Amino acid sequence: MNNIENFVGIAAGICTAISLLPQLVKLIKTKKAEDLSLFYLSILFVGLALWIWYGFLRDDLPIIVTNSFSLLVNLTVIVLGIRYKKNL
Asked: Is 19 helix (H, G, I), strand (E, B) or coil?
């Protein structure tokens, strides 16, 4: 793998990893989750877990690290979403 491939892979991983941070900040500030799709977040959780597994199969640390961070943020959003949903 050359340097440009590494850069693109790591940049993509970082973008994916931070993509849910604005939602997490909004949840923490407003403590409201009525418009949050837990179904979407559940599918994303499974996808991220599979990416981590794939990273282990390929022994690819950038895939493992960035998707592990994404999974942690996703899980936090899910937990807060369940906590703040009024219809549960």
From this structure: coil
